[in-house]
Each structure stands twice: as structure tokens, then as C-alpha cells.
Amino acid sequence: MRPPGSGGAPASAALPLLDSVPHCQRRGALHLPARRSERGPCYDSDRLLALITRRIGILGGTFDPVHCGHLDVAARAQEALGLSRMYIITSNIPPHRQQPFASAYHRFAMVSFAVASRESWRAADLELRSAAPSYTSGTLSKFHERGYAASELFFVIGADAFAEIATWYDYPAILDAAHFAVVSRPGFPVEELPQRLPRLMSRMVRPPLDPLSQIEPMISLIDAPTADVSSTAIRARVAAGESIAGLVPPGVQQHIEQHGLYMSMTPGRRASDHAPASAAGRLHGQS
Ligand code: ATP
Ligand code: MG
């Protein structure tokens, strides 16, 4: 993993996406002594902090391309946990995976189209600012560097991906860097996770989270419907000349068609390499 903040732009410049953090809300800057109210119980400063801080959702992925299942998983987590902001973070070079088919530029552009109608959502480019592999651990560290406590961050993830969490870089420490909001995916119910990951069972909870008691990062299991679609299936449909209407947002569909993305199944091949056949397209020895 690259050291936090190294390479490319400095960490502060790499996170224009984050809201400014009011000084009074930063951990360590909230000088609220424990006290006993005449009307209620005694709250210490950490508990009051948890009541007033924001809840930030983070959905990472290759988004090759982003599709309605991605939007569903983020929306279900936002509803279940009352998330005030949702960052959709496009991965650069995902570890343990083959290279994406579309360039990072195209993938980020499609995410931008996908979030355009959702006021509290943002397309985040922080993993694209470095040529190094994208690790969630490093991404969460960047949020911490900007003053966010682990208790304010909710890393949103599908149940299929979370089932592999033990293979992730920086496991198990990464589970202390943010809450994990695990949403069911068709064929991957969250009910199976306690058995699949027995060591983590004690940290698994069901929403709603009690803000007074959930300061320590937990694993929220969210059983909710999401579209039965995958990027792999969409790429295959495009390559086969089949429609992807209704599987991706309209702006994403238009972008894919306009730029000829996924017409070839060769990873990393540029869209311009396989533009619609034309006399010009056959000039340089292409058949
Ligand atoms: P690919 O087929 O290329 O693996 P994908 O559709 O699985 O693509 P990813 O970019 O791998 O999408 O997934 C990003 C995140 O979104 C993961 O946490 C994954 O579990 C989640 N996710 C993707 N599709 C769905 C879906 N239909 N329902 C719930 N979660 C999903
Ligand atoms: Mg996947």
C-alpha cells in the first residue's frame, strides 16, 4: 500500500470532495465535560459527539460500468443508516482483479452521470489521483486525515464482496477504520455472513444503529432488494449487441453507446480502437 498522502497531489488537495469539518465537531476539539442533566442521563463527550456528527457513506468499486445495482446498494444503505452524504469512489487499479475494460476516465465519467440527479451523492476521484493500486485501507486513511472519525464513516459493500473481506489488505485492522454497511445482493443474502465469517459475528448488527451505543465501528447487515445485475453481464450484453436499457442509468447507457465502450471484450482496449466500422476505421490494416 502506498503511504497515505504520498504520490500525486498532497492529501489535502486530493480530497476536495470532503465538506469542511466545523472545528467544534472534530474529535478532540469538542470540549464537553461529562455532566448530569437534570432531565436526563449523563452523556460523555464521545456520546454527544456521535449524536451530532455526520454519517458519511463510501461505495468503492471498479464501476466498469456503474449500473443500477450499484445505485441500489448505496441507496439502501443510505436509507437504512440515515447517511447524510454518499461518495462513489472509482477504483484505479483494483488489486486481485484483472484490469478494467474501460479507462478510468470513462468509468469516472459514467459514475458522474449516475450521481447527477442525487443531491447528496458525489463522484469521488481520490483513488484516481495516484497510479498506485487502490486499497480501501488507504482510502479510509485519507478520510481520517481530513478529520473524519471512524465512527462517522460507513463503507458500503455488497454481501458478495464482504464475504472475501479476510483477503483484503490490512485485514482485520481495516474493520476499525469505518463502519461496514453490508447490503444483500441477489444470490448473496446477508443471513449467511455470520456463519461464513464466525470471527466477525460479534460485530455484526442490524440497523437501525443506536447513535448512543454505536461509536465503535460495527458491521451492519442490511437485507434489502437490489437490482440483479452485474458489470460483467452488462459488458457481455453490449459485446453481444443486446440492449442494456433499464440496467444502467440513461446517461450511462448513452455514454457507453456514444463512445463504443465494451464492444470488444479485450481488457484495457480503448474505445477508439473499436469504433463502428467505417472506411476510415479500416485504413491502417484493420480488417
Ligand atoms: P463485476 O461484474 O465487474 O465484478 P460488479 O457488478 O460486481 O462488477 P463491482 O464494481 O465489482 O460491481 O462492485 C462494487 C460494489 O458494489 C461491491 O461491493 C459489490 O458487492 C456491490 N454490488 C455490485 N452490484 C451489486 C448488486 N446488484 N447488488 C448489491 N451489491 C452490488
Ligand atoms: Mg464484482
Description:
With 287 residues, this protein is of the alpha/beta class. The protein has a single domain, classed as 3-Layer(aba) Sandwich (Rossmann fold). It contains eight helices and nine strands. The strands form two sheets. The chain has a seven-stranded parallel β-sheet, with helices on both faces. The longest helix is centred in the N-terminal third of the chain and has 14 residues, at 68-81. The chain is globular and about 50 Å long. Bound molecules: adenosine-5'-triphosphate and magnesium ion. Residues 61-64, 69-70, 73, 157-158, 160-161, 183, 185, 226-227, 229-232 line the site of adenosine-5'-triphosphate.
Bound molecules: adenosine-5'-triphosphate, magnesium ion
The name CATH uses for the topology is Rossmann fold
Say which CATH homologous superfamily is assigned. HUPs
Main beta sheet strand tally, sense and closure = 7 strands, parallel
Q: What is the number of beta strands?
A: 9
Report the portion of residues in β strands.
5-15%
The SSE string, one letter per element, is EEHEHEHEHEHEHEEHH
Shape: globular
Assign the structural class, choosing from mainly alpha, mainly beta, alpha/beta, alpha+beta, or little secondary structure. Answer: alpha/beta
Summarize the entry for a quick read:
The chain has helices at about 45-50, 70-80, 105-115, 135-145, 160, 195, 230-240, 250-260; strands spanning about 35, 40-45, 55-60, 85-90, 120-125, 155-160, 180-185, 205, 220. By secondary structure, it is an alpha/beta fold.
